[in-house]
Amino acid sequence: MRIPRCVPRSVRVWVVVLGMSLSSGASGAVATNGVHWSYRPLQLPEVPVVSSPSGPVTHPIDGFILDRLHREGISPTPEADRRTLLRRVSLDLTGLPPTPAEMDAFLNDPSTDAYEQCVDRLLASPRHGERWARHWLDVVHYGETHGYDKDQPRPNAWPYRDYVIRALNSDKPYSRFIQEQIAGDVLWPDTEDGVTATGFISAGPWDLIGHAEVPESKTDGKIARLLDRDDMVATVMNTFNSATVQCARCHDHKFDPVRSEEYYQLTAVFAALDRADRKFDADPTVAERRRSLEGRRAALQQEKKPLDEAMVRQGGRRFALLERRVAAAEAGSKEPARPEMGWHSAIQSKADVVQWVQVDLGRPVEIHQLLYAGCHDDFNGIGKGFGFPVRYRMELSDDPEFKAGVQQLEDQTGGDLPNPGVTPREVKVPGLRGRYVRVTATRLAARMNDFIFALSELEVLDDQGSNWALGAPVSSSDSIEAAPRWGRDNLTDGWFPGRTQSATGEALDRLRKDRKALEGLPALSASLARLTPIRTELDQVTREISTLPPQRMVYAGTVHHGGGAFRGTGSNGGKPRPVYLLARGDVRKPGNEVTPGVPRSLGLSRGLQVDPAMPEGQRRVALAEWIADPENVLTWRSIVNRVWQHHFGRGLVETANDFGRMGTAPSHPELMDWLAVWFRDNNQSLKSLHRLIVTSRTYRQSSVVPNPEIHPGVARDSDNRLLWRMNRRKLEAEAIRDSMLWVAGRLDERRGGPSFKDFVVERPEHSPHYEYALHNPEDPESHRRSVYRFLVRSQPQPMMAALDCADPSISVDRRNETLNALQALALMNHKLAVSMSRHWAVRLENEAPTIPERVSLGMRLALGRRPTAEESQALVSHTEHHGLASTCRLLLNLNEFVFVD
Question: Which CATH class is domain 343-499?
Answer without folding.
Answer: mainly beta
